[in-house]
């Protein structure tokens, strides 16, 4: 569902540009609103959320999918934790649909999906691993690297049970905006994927904006 | 004779029945097959897979689905870990569509649909839920809820319409069975609690049969190996992992 936001950049509390292949890790307080902008289009923002008070409670793709009875995320979707509590709500979305089935790219899955010799190509899970190593204060480890959201990705499931990776329905400047319902840690890998035609083999930066 | 699988005897077989609303875990060695049979119809088996050597290596539903371009799991599919390896292959399946995206019912779902969980009155007929079942089994191996990623729900078909709306569209009939061939040593954690989208009038307490027996070696003609180029590369990753074994 397309829903625009009336928030103005000049009123933002913080902005950050995240280069392709980099990560973003920060805490967002309950009540704050958080926007991810696809600056150049067809980029994937592979995102994980944790409860700041206890990161063992985290975003759960399956709880979110099951509770809303729908595979795709858009304005109105409430993101659920692994304890089935509400965590964030998508309050604006100019893209219309985001994926949480397809997971993140990893060097290991790249060997299976593309070629055994692609094992050294940079991938989202590497970005997350570096993030948790460089930011010990969050207390995250590999066990916390779970099933994520792919903002701006389009992964339709067919009636017959097929799974396809379609060209993005995103475009330059499209954004998704989430309101935190509890204090959350957000961890984004701005996808460095060079094997997938979805992004035209051209990873690009994203922008993150936070409002109080 | 012991009812325990003897790996040197190809006719040996371990058989047990597991009541509905129960949970269990077992280490399944490479080369062993595990067959699940729905005894009465309408069963659901929630299942998770871990590498016993590094418990942080676990079943990865997204990698499993996207590398085989499928949303459903059935014969010919392999179940992948997050490390690009294959825990097991689905070598037989009479049901045709097992789902792996809806997770487990929590206590709140069960009590809302069917009333609370009351061991004092109901004893082992209590209305257990899949989420707590997994938590109990995981704790036995030092794992907590962070280890609980998307699981398989055997015998439950969940399909999506064009807009992504999900429905539990079909459950298995009595006698439906699925056979998994293990390609590496795997800790299997399972429950027989109702699928989270089950909406029957009474708590479905459906037993299953579980059998373990020695599998045939993987041949060059193997259906799972040849299902797609991705699976062949998955088997190559396993061969590297098992180098020298
Ligand atoms: Zn990626």
From TrEMBL, chain A:
Ranges of residues in domain DUF1989: 17-185
Coiled-coil ranges per UniProt: none
Top-level lineage group: Bacteria
Protein name: DUF1989 domain-containing protein
UniProtKB/TrEMBL annotation, chain B:
PANTHER family with a match to the protein in the record: RE64534P (PTHR31527:SF0)
Pfam families according to UniProt: DUF1989
Protein name according to UniProt: DUF1989 domain-containing protein
Annotated DUF1989 domain residues: 17-187
Lineage, top ranks: Bacteria, Pseudomonadati, Pseudomonadota, Gammaproteobacteria, Cellvibrionales
Protein origin, superkingdom: Bacteria
InterPro entries: DUF1989, UAAP1
């Amino acid at each position: 569902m397309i829903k625009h936001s009336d928030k103005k950049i000049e009123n933002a509390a913080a902005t950050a540009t995240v280069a392709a292949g980099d990560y973003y890790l920060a805490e967002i307080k309950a009540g704050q609103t958080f926007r991810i902008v696809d600056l150049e289009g067809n980029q994937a923002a592979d995102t994980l959320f944790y409860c700041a008070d206890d990161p063992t409670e985290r975003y759960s793709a399956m709880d979110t999918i099951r509770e809303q009875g729908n595979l795709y995320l858009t304005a109105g979707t409430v993101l659920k934790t692994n304890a089935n509590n509400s965590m964030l709500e998508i309050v604006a979305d100019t893209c219309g649909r985001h994926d949480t089935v397809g997971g993140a790219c990893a060097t290991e899955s790249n060997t299976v999906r593309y070629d055994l010799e692609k094992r050294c190509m940079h991938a989202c899970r590497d970005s997350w691993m570096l993030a948790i190593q460089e930011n010990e204060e969050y207390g995250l480890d590999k066990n916390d690297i779970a099933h994520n959201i792919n903002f701006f990705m389009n992964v339709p499931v067919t009636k017959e049970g097929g799974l396809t990776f379609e060209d993005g329905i995103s475009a330059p400047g499209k954004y998704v905006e989430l309101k935190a319902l509890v204090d959350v840690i957000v961890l984004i890998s701005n996808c460095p994927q060079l094997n997938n035609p979805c992004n035209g083999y051209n990873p690009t930066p994203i922008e993150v904006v936070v409002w109080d | 004779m012991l009812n325990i699988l003897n790996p040197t005897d190809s006719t040996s077989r371990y058989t047990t029945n597991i009541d509905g609303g129960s949970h269990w875990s077992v280490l399944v060695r490479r080369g062993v097959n595990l067959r699940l049979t729905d005894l009465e119809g309408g069963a659901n088996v929630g299942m998770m897979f871990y590498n016993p050597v590094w418990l942080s290596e676990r079943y990865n539903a997204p990698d499993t689905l996207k590398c085989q371009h499928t949303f459903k799991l059935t014969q010919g599919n392999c179940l992948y870990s997050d490390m690009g390896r294959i825990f097991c292959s689905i070598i037989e399946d009479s049901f045709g569509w097992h789902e792996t995206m809806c997770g487990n019912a929590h206590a709140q779902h069960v009590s809302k649909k069917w009333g609370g969980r009351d061991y004092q009155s109901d004893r082992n007929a209590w209305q257990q839920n899949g989420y707590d079942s997994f938590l109990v089994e995981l704790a036995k191996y030092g794992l907590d809820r962070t280890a609980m990623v998307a699981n398989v729900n055997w015998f439950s078909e969940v399909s999506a319409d064009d807009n992504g709306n999900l429905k539990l569209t079909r459950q298995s009939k009595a006698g439906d069975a699925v056979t998994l061939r293990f390609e590496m040593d795997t800790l299997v954690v399972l429950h027989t609690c109702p699928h989270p989208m089950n909406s029957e009038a009474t708590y479905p307490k459906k037993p299953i049969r579980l059998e373990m027996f020695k599998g045939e070696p993987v041949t060059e003609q193997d259906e799972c190996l040849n299902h797609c180029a991705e699976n062949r590369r998955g088997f190559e990753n396993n061969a590297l992992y098992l180098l020298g074994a």
